[in-house]
Design a protein that fits this description.
Blueprint lengths: L2 E9 L10 E10 L2 E10 L8 H7 L3 H4 L5 H12 L4 E3 L2 H14 L10 E3 H8 L7 H7 L12 H15 L2 H26 L11 H12 L7 H5 L4 H5 L3
Parallel strand pairs: 1-4, 4-5
Antiparallel strand pairs: 1-2, 2-3
Helix pairs in contact: 5-7
């Protein structure tokens, strides 16, 4: 089983080393590249003001955030959800910088850079020279992002999870597997149908030949399997065909 976490953050600005704080995180669990339905989502009180430029991006004001928990109050729940899974993010070093700054502030263990999977780097390698913002990738892969009127960590993580499986080719592989399984099932059904006769074949032997055959079977002993065939039964007709 391969477990991965796709995540996104919203912040008060661009630099955690200049006093900017994380105000939202959204995480989506994938197992074998499928969303399991398990998520972690939380808003945080940043204990500071919200710059107008950041508010225009995500729409999270201090009036909304002031009664939300501090990051330190949710750190254990968050780290339990993350576990030791690889972490998938778009422009991952940005999100990791803020996540680790909050973890350090709360006295938690930071996340190693080696755990990151950066979908921006994947997109640049796959689509060199193209714009690879999340919205652009959603359009390229025909992923509905109409709900994304502003940035939101959980919604962005959900969209990114879909983009991620497209970038690594997992969706095509899974569709190919599903088609192969379906084709195999149809072939088995057709094969069974071919072996079921609508009516049994008429007997070809004469009455004398059938009588001689019964005498031969009777001489084989009580446990001979041919006695069952001679009586009109088969082992499968008694045990059932599974």
């Amino acid at each position: 089983m391969m477990r991965e976490i796709v995540f996104d953050t919203e912040t008060t600005g661009l630099d955690p080393f200049q006093g900017d704080r994380m105000v939202e995180i959204g995480c989506i669990e994938l197992v074998n590249r499928f969303p399991t339905g398990k998520t972690f989502h939380c808003y945080f009180n940043p204990e500071r003001d919200m710059p107008e430029a950041a508010f225009k991006v995500h729409g999270l004001g201090i009036d909304f955030l002031k009664d939300k928990p501090l990051f330190a109050h949710k750190v254990e729940e968050l780290t339990d959800f993350l576990g030791d899974a690889p972490l998938v993010a778009h422009n991952a070093m940005f999100d990791l910088g803020f996540l680790n700054a909050e973890l350090e502030r709360a006295g938690g263990a930071v996340v190693r850079r080696e755990r990151l999977v950066d979908t921006l780097m994947l997109a640049r390698r796959k689509h060199p020279g193209a714009s690879n913002r999340l919205d652009d990738l959603c359009v390229r892969y025909r992923i509905d992002n109409s709900r994304r009127t502003k940035h939101g960590a959980l919604l962005d993580a959900e969209l990114l999870a879909e983009v991620y499986v497209e970038l690594i080719g997992a969706r095509q592989a899974l569709l190919g597997l599903a088609e192969a399984v379906n084709a195999a099932g149809e072939a088995r059904t057709a094969a069974v149908a071919m072996h079921v006769r609508p009516r049994p074949l008429a007997a070809r032997g004469s009455a004398e030949e059938h009588a001689a055959h019964r005498e031969f079977i009777a001489a084989l002993g009580e446990n001979a399997i041919w006695r069952k065939y001679g009586s009109g039964e088969t082992p499968d007709s008694q045990a059932g065909i599974g």
